[in-house]
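Comment thread on ticket #2218

A.B. wrote:
> Attaching the input chain for the structure job we discussed in standup.
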Amino acid sequence: MKQITIYEYIATNVPSDAHFVINKYGGGNYTRAKSVKELEGQLKDFVKKNGKQGLLALAEIHPDKELISLVDTKSNFNDSEKLPQFANATGDSVITNGDKEQLTYSKMLILGGFLLLGIALITKK
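C.D. wrote:
> Ran it. Output below, let me know if you need it in another format.
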């Protein structure tokens, strides 16, 4: 199954609502998109410029927002709380400084394991 971004999903399923939202909150800077790909790009730019507020605006028009609200038990977060990892709309993980340190440590452990395995294989012959 092909994975799509939230931008493509919204651009495909609610293009009129998407255009209305990005022009309402984006200051009317976006022309009417001629394709789904163009609208997808505009949505990405909108979120890049407006951050969390842009994501929340898109969440309001998401075609499955009723279904998501049934599952989501903590949708009202404030600025001081850490966003959940799935909150990044670009598909990238949200990584904090503490996570970066742990990720670096994990990479070092994996590299060390490969080095030990390589040395073991070389000395075995």
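A.B. wrote:
> Thanks. Noting for the ticket: The chain has two domains: 6-91, 95-125.
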